[in-house]
Specification:
Number of strands: 13
Helix content: 10-25%
Number of domains: 2
CATH topology of the largest domain: Glucose Oxidase, domain 1
Strand order of the largest sheet: 1-13-11-5-7-9-10-4-12
Bound molecules: acetylphosphate
Distance between the termini: 40 Å
């Protein structure tokens, strides 16, 4: 994404934007996930009614490719050992002749459904909680994904189906919405977005990847999503939202149509408020079920992989209704 003239710097756009730095101590690395206390876990568990389970990860390493931020490469799974090795006499011999299959994966840590580390993005040489950007060099030593993975994410999740609210299967490229739209959609769904809820937003965008040739998906790549405003940022702060989960690759509209800045919410929410970002989920089946049974709030459970120094890590979030 090239430099565009007359676009302000993030430091100008966000000069008065609120921060949660220091709120949970100078060493904190999990930010707004601190809102998810044991009481919030119990509140989440209290949402379970039928025992229906939904998994929100997209398939990883599909031969036809996975949805991914342009410029990254899709995950590659490589067979290292399988039946063919034994057929040609190259399989290892174990006492008792146990045979096995092995494989390995080469992937971007943001190359599937994932949690971003809070230090994944920055401006002005500081990441979340004021840690120096230098701490990202050669592997993150501060605000990596590891503390999020060690904590785990459990609470009351609420799904807002923006696509359904706008009577679409998929929001249009570049289509935006804000917190007022989220609340209007919630009211129509008959659910309330409550303080400390894990906020899950469906646009239909990731689902659309599986309905078209990938060249078409990436052509003129502009995602739909939340768009920056000071009021939206204040709403996230006041609602003490711990975690934003969407079925887009970047959790926000690609280019803010007002300022022209790319991905300003990554900085305003993740870097400054410590809101955890979960991206590239698939929400279509869950949304259809919620529309059918009218239950839009549920228990949400997730823990990314414990990648030491990772800027993010794959995850398969689980929703239980
Ligand atoms: C970028 O890093 C550009 O975005 P994401 O957080 O979606 O991986």
């Amino acid at each position: 994404m090239g430099e565009v003239k007359d676009v302000p710097l993030l430091s100008e756009l966000l000069k008065d934007s609120p921060k949660n730095w220091g709120k949970w101590g100078a060493d904190d690395e999990v930010g707004s996930l601190n809102y998810l206390t044991s009481l919030e876990v119990i509140r989440g568990v209290g949402m379970v009614r039928s025992g229906k389970v939904f998994t929100l990860q997209v398939p990883m390493g599909a031969p036809e490719g996975d949805p991914i931020w342009p410029g990254r490469r899709t995950a590659q799974r490589v067979n290292v050992m399988d039946h063919s090795h034994y057929q040609c006499g190259k399989g290892p011999h174990f006492p008792g002749e146990l045979h096995y299959a092995d494989d390995m994966m080469i992937m971007y840590l943001q190359g599937s459904t994932q949690y971003d580390a809070l230090g994944h993005v920055w401006y002005d040489d500081q990441i979340y909680n004021g840690f120096e950007a230098e701490t990202t060099t050669g592997g993150m030593t501060k605000a990596s994904v590891l503390p999020i993975a060690e904590k785990g994410v459990v609470g009351r999740g609420v799904l807002i189906d923006m696509a359904r609210y706008r009577l679409k299967n998929v929001l249009d490229r570049g289509e935006t919405f804000d917190h007022e739209d989220l609340m209007a959609a919630a009211a129509q769904q008959g659910v309330e977005i409550k303080k400390h809820d894990i906020l899950i937003i469906r646009t239909g965008f990731i689902g659309s990847f599986y309905t078209m040739p990938s060249d078409n998906f990436y052509d003129n790549f502009v995602e739909p999503g939340l768009t920056y405003s000071p009021e939206l940022v204040s709403w996230f702060k006041d609602m003490e939202i711990p975690n934003l989960v969407t079925d887009t690759i970047a959790n926000e509209v690609t280019i803010d149509p007002v300022s022209g800045i790319a991905l300003p919410l990554h900085s305003a929410l993740m870097r400054n408020l410590g809101v955890a970002f979960t991206e590239i989920t698939i929400l279509d089946e869950l949304a259809d079920d919620c529309a059918a049974d009218g239950q839009w709030a549920f228990l949400y459970v997730a823990a990314p992989l414990k990648v030491v120094g990772g800027s993010g890590a794959p995850v398969n979030p689980v929703v239980i209704k």
